[in-house]
Design a protein that fits this description.
Helices cover 42% and strands 18% of the residues. The chain has 319 residues and is α/β, with parallel strands linked by helices. It folds into two domains: 182 residues, Rossmann fold, CATH 3.40.50.450; 112 residues, Rossmann fold (3-Layer(aba) Sandwich). 50% of the residues are buried. The structure holds 6-O-phosphono-beta-D-fructofuranose. Its main location: cytoplasm.
Length: 319
Amino acid sequence: MKRIGILTSGGDAPGMNAAIRAVVRKSIYHGFEAYGVYQGFSGLINGNIKKLELGSVGDIIHRGGTMLRSARCEEFITKEGQQKGIEQLKKFGIDGLVVIGGNGSFMGAKALSEQGFPCIGVPATIDNDIPGTEFTIGFDTALNTVLDAVDKIRDTASSHERTFIIEVMGRDAGDIALWAGLAGGAETILVPEEKYVMDDIAERLRSGQKRGKEHSIIIVAEGVMSGTQFAEELHKATNIDTRVSVLGHIQRGGTPTGFDRVLASRLGAKAVELLMQGKGGRAVGIDKDIIVDEDILTVLEKPHKYHQDMYELSKELSI
Ligand code: F6P
């Protein structure tokens, strides 16, 4: 192994840059060369690849987004697309690839590994929905961005005695909603992992009102339904008027938190270590503060960890 390639793919996540920096610096420290693949798998197919030096990754550890750019690439789902990618890697003399991203990126890394090209998956997505790791890079920053918004909306909710519905991202996972709901003191949290009962929600709002609570925050994960749709359903059931805030892509940007920078540095470095040891086809992750790795061919078959205990707790604390 002489040359290590790095790419970021799928939705960007704060901390991706810190992971890129770790891969590049760790590689060069140990006498390897680092190559950046720009624009994810689509850049790989097109050979958009450049050598990275120590200075190429200076001044990026604190920046959101990804200096390598990102893309969602349909062509890479096909065998032909994957073969084109492998040809480009060979053309540049790259012997191992670190893929930083979410579910789709892991599928790409898995496909390359299945075809014999050594690949390591580094989990980075605000959704926190990758199996094999307790946390993905970017989740902590997104959580804090959402919390900041929830706190601000609470000021208005309380001043105007209103019920607010806040729609958050997360794709099919409810982690952003659950963690932000618990930390933000939301009265109700809707996640795809739990069935909601409108009567219970209505009862909760009514009993709150009876004891003088005139405002409420309801957090809806996009994987359940849109905030607007839920507002309509709630209105039908209770006649309560609400305001809806869709936080959208604001959740993906911003300066990565200390937690995300440290996580990204540790996971990026571990990916390089594995490639240096001649190991490919692995996914790295964190488990009880230990950096771990497992087979990328099977990791995606497991469900991602859902904290039902936190969901129950949030209900107890928001009576
Ligand atoms: O996976 C990250 C994510 O932000 C999801 O939470 C969301 O469903 C999706 O990406 C949005 O994707 P796009 O930016 O392509 O619209």
